[in-house]
Specification:
This protein is of the alpha/beta class. The protein has helices at residues 11-23, 50-59, 64-73, 78-83, 115-120, 122-145, 162-174, 183-189, 199-203, 208-218, 232-248, 263-276, 292-300, 312-315, 397-410, 413-416, 431-443; strands spanning 28-37, 45-46, 92-95, 101-102, 109-114, 150-153, 179-180, 223-226, 253-258, 283-287, 307-310, 324-332, 335-336, 351-357, 363-370, 382-386, 389-390, 427-429. The strands form four sheets. A seven-stranded antiparallel sheet has the order 13-12-1-5-3-16-17. The chain has a six-stranded parallel sheet with strand order 7-6-11-10-9-8. The chain has a three-stranded mixed sheet with strand order 14-15-18. It starts with 10 loop residues before the first helix and ends in a 5-residue tail after the last helix.
Length: 448
Amino acid sequence: MSGESVLLTDLYQLTMLQAYWQRGMNDTAVFEFFVRKLPEQRNFLIAAGLEQVLDHLEDTAFSAEEIGWLRQSGRFDPDFVDSLANWRFAGDVDALPEGTVCFADEPLLRIVAPIREAQLVETRIINLLQLQTMVASKAARCVLAAPGRLLVDFGLRRSHGAEAGLLSARASYLAGFGGTSTILAGMRWGIPLFGTMAHSFIEAHASEAEAFANFARSQPTGTTLLIDTYDTEQAAAKLVGLVPRLTAEGLRVNAVRLDSGDLGEHARRVRAILDAGGLSAVRIFASGNLDEYRLRDLLRGGAPIDGFGVGTRMNTSADKPYLDCAYKLQEYAGLPRRKRSEGKLTWPGRKRICRSFNADGRMTGDTLTVAADRTGQPDLIVPVMRQGRRLAPSPGLGVIREHVRAELARLPERLRELDPAAEGYPLTVSEALRALARDADRASGLDV
């Protein structure tokens, strides 16, 4: 999201920067972003949000207005404030490609830069990666629960703010959704747009049939009609008589939408009415407080629903609306660093992730090791930025969608299920990384 204020951050980022500046501390720092542990209801995560992070790192700078406001605040040393006029991110970034399946303790992104650069970007990096990774992971579960069905993001209006709604459209699309109702996402990223009508359109007309006809005439190449404003089955019966007349006018009704009540039972009754009336080509689309669990239950129950609008519960990841994630210092001035706090232990240094597969191509386990440990296996973390500039344009969403599809196909079957797997995905910490951790502890004066 380019053009945003660099002051969209936490106060402590600037207070630390001032302290570093006053002490002349600006050696190279290594920070990594990772998720400490998976939410209880998640067997995996999908890395997402990297493109927006790179946009931020390339574009962010202090404006004259921001410099002036900081000076007038009286909170900071005036000479320190003046130094911010030349602040730019000119560091290196390595990251998991967007759409990669990942797990707890695995770095999704690594920053290598002078500590004043690496520190200031912490808040926004967490903000961007946490949201899209959380939503993409929830959306991927919906895709697994409803294979072969059209899934559309309907969540903008109940997202936690405009940016969250927009980025949720992107995250759900890269995870496998077929499109979104958010127009700006269509303009910005080319995501297919889907939409029907509101109940108010029906209520504003003298009759339901008149509303259906008028809306179909305004969308002559094909439309979806909302049929649950009054009586769902009666509305379906009205269409049996109306659709042939609309067809004679060259108009096409593609689908009907159900948005309330017992969606499975209504879908069965509507399907029977439409089929008996010769409208077997008209599909059924359903929405209304859906998530992966409702999708699974509806389809297991045999509901004849062809597509779903999934909004609030997916865009807010309602069952687990945050990730326990962090952006932590792993190395400074060439020395390994790590946090030892209870429940928040980190592994130091620059790391790599090596993934193993069985003969069927399914993932069998990951190894977390130091970046210099050449195991013969490729590193999942790849270079994406050097000296503050992208190494290549970000891949299109179509490329990322295909990567997600392939990643999900390689998941062990137990991890594709919605319920927590009895056996989690194995992550092995190499002896080389454990040795580095002991070195970091000794440097901190701890007994090891």
